[in-house]
Request: fold
Amino acid sequence: KHKSVIRQSKGFRGRANRCFRIAIRRLEKSWQYAYRDRKVKRREFRKLWILRLNAGVRQYGISYSRFIQMQGKSGVVLDRKILSGLAMYEPFSFKAVVDVVQKMSATSIAGKA
Reply:
């Protein structure tokens, strides 16, 4: 048990990588940080995707929130990760998606009216 704890605490500062009692506390704290930061990482990536998507759709005169609303009405099912990747690396494909979303949402609004 002690050996595995000391092995896992390799790289910690001070006595936390040598002394079992200190190492076990630091190791439990590191597990707490890892658990918390897995959630934070998802949050941060979502924010990044939204920023990239907002920058991409503003080139075509639409705000991010308006684009997402239109996308919901149009029935285009692409998530923010895919859309932001298209906006960054495939601008012509992204333009096609924006055009489809605009056209489909316009027809769905006209159909309801």
The CA atoms of residues 18 and 46 lie 39 Å apart. The mean pLDDT is 91.
